Amino acid sequence: MKRNSRLSLALHTLSHMAGGPDRLRTSSDIADHAGTNPVVVRRVLGKLRKAGLLISEKGHAGGWRLARQPQDITLADVYLALDERMVATQEKSEAPACSVEHALHKRVSSVLEEIEENLVQRLGETSIAEVRGA
Amino acid sequence: MKRNSRLSLALHTLSHMAGGPDRLRTSSDIADHAGTNPVVVRRVLGKLRKAGLLISEKGHAGGWRLARQPQDITLADVYLALDERMVATQEKSEAPACSVEHALHKRVSSVLEEIEENLVQRLGETSIAEVRGA
DNA sequence: TACTAATGCAACCGCAAAAGTTACAGATGA
DNA sequence: TCATCTGTAACTTTTGCGGTTGCATTAGTA
Ligand code: FES
Ligand code: FES
């Protein structure tokens, strides 16, 4: 696959599921479709399951399906479920040598934070159903 | 450093320069301040120079300074200068097995593209001067 | 002219994150 | 009882990126 694959994989998979929300799909099917492998799929979808976006069923004839209606799943739900931060720094205390202008440093961080929030808000305005829709 | 370091480094550096726009700073000074090394700094700032945001002067007593007034440099300028794409896939033809639903695939990509554009637009609303400002 | 100090750039190293892979336990329907 | 699917852990492979070294070039300065 490529970079940023997790969000991309999640979105593509959910979009497919949006048509035929009741049909169960195995991680193997999904992996074939997405050009990756079942374990990677289960890793990503597992996060979506923990976030309550998907339901998985074990055993024979098991698989994955949407936990809600497509119109009730926003891109922000997906983004947040993956727990990545694309804009803001994944802060690790990063102490700068910038002691005198420490205020400036925090200022930069907070601006980045605002941008991140804005992104999430924007993502919240589109649902999976709309992605599929048109 | 950490993840997303290029945008972060660029923003911090420009913010510092916004106070004292005429003073020349060497990549070495900047590296010390940012906790990295001169070559990395020159790599990142080089992109900003190509984008016309910075001017570098070679030779003895050379260094870096802003090419424009801080209020005329937006975060979008910086983001675009670095030529990264945080949301949209850095498309590499990624041919999906998704032949039947090819339209859906493109749809997903275009949604991601819209989000990316929205991000850039948001970044365009803040200038370096404002970051420093307050 | 010689010396010093800076950028610009290419080539490489090393690390860490992420994908890919293998293996297997547990669950569940046939 | 068997086949099939999830859940997870452990391991390997790939890759992006910061870090490092080296050196040509440029430009002040003595
Ligand atoms: S390191 Fe000085 S502002 Fe961030
Ligand atoms: S792979 Fe099917 S929509 Fe992208």
TrEMBL record, chains A, B:
SUPFAM superfamilies listed in its UniProt record: Winged helix' DNA-binding domain
UniProt cross-references to PROSITE patterns, sorted A to Z: HTH_RRF2_2 (PS51197)
InterPro entries in alphabetical order: Tscrpt_reg_Rrf2 (IPR000944), WH-like_DNA-bd_sf (IPR036388), WH_DNA-bd_sf (IPR036390)
Cellular component aspect of the GO annotation: cytosol
Single Gene Ontology MF annotation: DNA-binding transcription factor activity
Short name of any one Pfam family annotated for the protein: Rrf2
Annotated Gene3D superfamilies: Winged helix-like DNA-binding domain superfamily/Winged helix DNA-binding domain (1.10.10.10)
Domain of life: Bacteria
PANTHER family: HTH-TYPE TRANSCRIPTIONAL REGULATOR YWGB-RELATED (PTHR33221:SF15), WINGED HELIX-TURN-HELIX TRANSCRIPTIONAL REGULATOR, RRF2 FAMILY (PTHR33221)
Name of the protein described by the UniProt record: BadM/Rrf2 family transcriptional regulator
